[in-house]
Design goal:
single chain; 136 residues; mainly alpha; de novo design (two linked rop proteins); elongated
Length: 136
């Protein structure tokens, strides 16, 4: 049996499991007739493993890193929605916490893989954690 390259990536496998949990939360939103929220949650949940999969099919490391960045940004989008929905009482707090923990771990894994692919272990500048240190 043939496999796609991404199927063997632990990061993709874990993102699929997280996406499945996100889908279950979206079902809860639909039960409350919050169809737009459910749809957006599912879309963001799918974006995470799909961007990892799509990037793994890239012909260059740079392109793969770009798709990993899209996946990483999806973790932030999902986390934001979960936080808002939990504050509004639309999803259980314990489910939010569980998925937030998984998203944090996935985000770290994505960052580590991106750094590995880029050929360096660039650490963010301590003064500004968003910017990377300039190379001399």
């Amino acid at each position: 049996m043939r496999y796609f390259r991404f199927e063997k990536l632990v990061i993709w496998q874990r993102s699929v499991e997280t996406a499945r949990k996100i889908f279950k939360l979206a079902d809860l939103l639909e039960e409350r007739r919050l169809f737009r929220f459910a749809d957006q949650m599912r879309g963001a949940g799918l974006s995470l493993p799909n961007n990892i999969a799509e990037g793994s099919g890239s012909t260059s490391k740079r392109e793969f890193i770009q798709f990993l960045n899209f996946a990483r940004r999806s973790t932030f989008e999902i986390a934001s929605m979960l936080m808002i929905f939990a504050k509004e009482g639309l999803i259980p707090e314990n489910k939010k916490e569980e998925i937030i923990q998984e998203l944090d771990e996935l985000c770290r894994m994505i960052t580590a893989l991106s750094r590995t692919l880029s050929g360096g272990d660039k650490k963010p500048d301590k003064a500004n954690p968003v910017r990377e240190k300039a190379t001399p």
